[in-house]
Amino acid sequence: MRLKEIQSALRERNIDAWLFYDHHYRDPIGYRILGLPANLHVTRRWYYLVPASGEPIQLNHRIEAGRLDPLPGSKRLYSAWQEQHQSLKEMLAPYKTVAMQYSPNNSIPYISLVDGGTIELIRSFGTNIVSSADLVSRFEAVWTDDQIASHFAARDAIDRIMEGAFKEIGARTRNGGTTEFEIQQWIVEGFKREHLVTDNPPVVGVNANSGDPHYAPSAEQNAPIHKGDFILLDVWAKTDKPDSVFYDITWTGVVGQPPTERQQEIFNHVRAARDAGFEKVKSAIESGKKIEGWEVDKATRDSITAAGYAKFFTHRTGHSIGIDIHANGANMDNLETKDDREIIPNSCFSIEPGIYLPEFGVRSEFNVLVRKGKAEVTGRIQKELVVA
Questions:
Q1: How confident is the model at residue 1 (pLDDT cuts 50, 70, 90)?
Q2: Do residues 118 and 155 both lie within one domain?
Q3: What angle do CA 376, 195, 370 make, to 5 degrees?
Q4: Is 185 helix (H, G, I), strand (E, B) or coil?
Q5: pTM (predicted TM-score)
């Protein structure tokens, strides 16, 4: 457990304490930040209070008294609910404001893990609760140097696989044809060769299927790929080493012939929106200004809205990237949520606006790594539609 770092982060934010709470593994974030094993057998409620200064305090049920023993601090025990409430009240009495895994109005659901009843209980003691969202980003979304290196290793492999996939599509369509599923499996085999792992197989979507943001071909349901088809490839994976982080990109193209004017127009609008989002991040970071996730989404969405395609951009601009493909840092989102988490150094996220029409859809995705004083796109940038 990184006690000194947690306490320093609390003092920086003028928060008196961070209260962790769990019952039946409802809060995996807390387990990771505290360094508790995910397979810890928990059937009763526990609490762990980390003050900005001083000794932490744990509160456990007597029949699971040792569950938090690996953590520093003093221990309190309870059996009856009245005893639990009184102990909590006494623990919290010195602190006016505590952070919890809570988000006002559930605006950031990835963080809002504490149930409403527990929030009511803590507030009944006169304690003010604030969101731990930015604290979680600090301890969940910041990459180490080794993780940054793992991202670049995955990038090198996936950029090669992406380029090869378009060439494979072109070759197969000229020599008897292929399907979405066959190309998906070709990419999966590439992952194995490159020692990459992922949570789900890549997206290969042709024509109308490329207009479905979460389309996924399968052996049972997939479409053939022919000359003249529009195709979208969304590929994400990480190296097969512990604590490695993901690389996640989406490219689009046309099979065997130049794009139509309509396809080129839509790609141009998506590319412009993507670049507007990156420029928003880059200029803010280089000038030392604080920037939040929703502001990046607004920049890309304003670009697509100005082009007249607002109703066809149906998802957030991007997501935090880490050990999990969707990590617990700031998302680039002012649509599904208003993500007011700060974009912080050594964190990474995708920028991936899209326009999804009934006949085809365009998404262009790259990853942005923010360091102190600069922001960079970590891989190749698609500037034109690929002709496979």
A1: confident
A2: no
A3: 15
A4: helix
A5: 0.93
